[in-house]
Design a protein that fits this description.
- Helices cover 36% and strands 13% of the residues.
- The chain has an eight-stranded parallel sheet with strand order 4-1-5-10-9-6-7-8, sandwiched between helices. It has a two-stranded antiparallel ribbon with strand order 2-3.
């Protein structure tokens, strides 16, 4: 299996985030991708390639030009205001306020974000842009006839909607890749999100569409981030009704419970007759993840890969979350090795 990867991810390294009332070092940090890359090499999974540059056009199929312009220019505007430290939002257009776009940098950041978990630093735009190119390069490899590919993206993307960043995510790499498949002639794409946290951005992007089936297994949003999306009764709307499948699970869920949900999701994908599968590969379902509450163990990820392989679909794995840094490489690559072994 080819891995696509860019060193540009090192350009994004937020200084801190707000957790339980304290400013703490960011859990989403460069070492995450570094450990995965090293594991890919140690296990000789396959060649590691740098991405091609497909430009902004395929990104604009998912994210609005206005949103991208804000994101790309925000750091320079912050510096022009003599800003110090990371740029972080501090106000949002909540329920009793109007969703207007102010002229102020801070007002615009609130408009284009849903939390303070996506700081903008000097290199954030370039890191996120390159991550999208990583996903597009892996997508192109599969569209060219390959059965699988791994897009080692960082920062992650599944919390980012068309005009919204948050939850460590800026550009929705999985959605960008899924749309690229459709634009290249595929009729039905399935996205399976196995991250601990619901892929609210991906759901929102495709919620009213029938050409992408979205299935997500995640912590119950009644108690877990992102809280305001990811419930089982969210089935899609309009043309997309019936093409959104959420499987929220309680804290403490083990492989037995989690794999039962995976089986349901896989059966739904099989029934959809998808032509290609995009997997939002989060491994924060691990039992020792510092910000998640499931109890999967490292061998479980091999079984996960095997079950995904049983779908028999060309499959693009796009890296999302996972914050137990010392174990992230083992767990992510176990999914890929399980998938590969089942296809031998």
């Amino acid at each position: 299996m080819l891995t696509y990867y860019s060193d540009d991810h090192h350009l994004h390294h937020g200084s801190c985030e707000l957790i339980d009332g304290q400013l703490m070092p960011c859990f989403e940090k460069p070492q995450r991708a570094d450990h995965i890359l090293q594991r890919v090499k140690d296990r000789q999974l396959g060649e590691v390639r740098a991405p091609k540059d497909f430009g902004r056009a395929p990104i604009e199929r998912i994210h609005s030009a206005a949103y991208l312009e804000f994101f790309a220019s925000a750091w320079a505007r912050w510096q022009a205001q003599n800003g110090t430290g990371d740029l972080l939002p501090y106000t949002w257009p909540a329920r009793t306020l109007r969703a207007v776009l102010p002229s102020s940098l801070h007002g615009q950041f609130g408009y284009y974000s849903f939390d303070a978990g996506a700081p903008i630093t000097a290199g954030t735009w370039q890191a996120a842009y390159s991550a999208a190119q990583v996903a597009l390069s892996a997508q192109a490899h599969i569209a060219g006839g390959a059965h699988s590919a791994f897009a080692l993206c960082r920062p992650p993307g599944h919390h980012a909607a068309g005009e919204l960043m948050g939850g460590y995510c800026y550009l929705n790499n999985a959605a960008i890749a899924a749309q690229a498949f459709l634009d290249q002639g595929y009729a039905r794409v399935a996205i399976l999100d196995v991250d601990y946290h619901h892929g609210n951005g991906t759901q929102d992007i495709f919620y009213a569409r029938s050409d992408v089936l979205f299935a997500s297994i995640h912590g119950d949003p009644l108690a877990e981030f992102p809280f305001f999306l990811g419930y089982a009764d969210e089935l899609g709307e309009g043309a997309g009704e019936g093409y959104n499948c959420n499987y929220p699970l309680p804290a403490g869920s083990t492989w037995e419970t989690w794999s039962a949900a995976l089986e349901q999701a896989c059966q739904r994908i099989a029934g959809y007759a998808a032509e290609v599968l995009v997997v939002s590969l989060g491994v924060d379902t691990f039992k020792d993840d510092p910000i998640s509450q499931f109890k999967l163990d490292s061998p479980d990820y091999l079984a996960m890969g095997r079950r995904i392989a049983a779908l028999g679909l060309p499959t693009l794995f796009v890296m999302e979350g996972g914050y137990a840094v010392e174990a992230i490489g083992v767990n992510a690559v176990n999914v890929l090795e399980g998938f590969e072994a089942a296809n031998l």
